[in-house]
Here is the input.
Amino acid sequence: MLWIGMSGWQYADWRDRLYAGVPQKRWLERYWQSFCTVELNASFYRLPKRETFETWRERTPPDAVFTVKASRYLTHIKRLREPEEPVARFVGVASALGDRLGPVLIQLPPDFKADPGGLEQTMALFPADWRLAVEPRHESWWNDEVRAVLASRNAAMVWADRHEKPVTPLWRTADWGYVRFHEGCATWPAYRPAAMTAWAKRLQDEYDDADVFVYFNNDPTGAAVRDSAVLAKKAARIGLAHTRADIPETA
Here is the structure.
């Protein structure tokens, strides 16, 4: 099952597309009419209060799934050193989502060289039943030790795409998957339909019926909104099940 969503929902570029005629205070509710999942990036810059997560849970439908990005304090400032306090604080607030909580995204800085021990220590601090997705961005992480650390925790190696090609190894380290689309090769930053066809087939071949969380991060000009609908159509064409991506024709 492809869980298709966006990296956030508060984008002015979507005002005349996904949110036409909808006041900004109701954008969250409108978002869930089109999607079942969202990747929450705001938590990376400033971790919301527990009450905020509780409010989001109350305002969303029962099938809503929030992926929450780990705080940059843990990943970019501490660089996984002394992770106990930042992980505990994160877990303490994000757990307020209850059954709406999906994976946790741990994105590492592009200049952060491999530290499999630090990663293993950090992941061990999260509840054992939480899904963790890790996005390393320095090539030193592409080694067997890192792959084994991820597999030991059933943590997904993020498959990141930029310019319509993977920029990370296509390792399957878990019984579920995670993909992030950053930038395509059509009119910037959109993806060409052919790229979505290729990705749908790749995910079907590798994951079949397993859960794969797919998020579009190319939000300028509303490209992410349009591309998500294209991916859903390509997936349906080859019989790959997916969550809703119901986009208005005007988008």
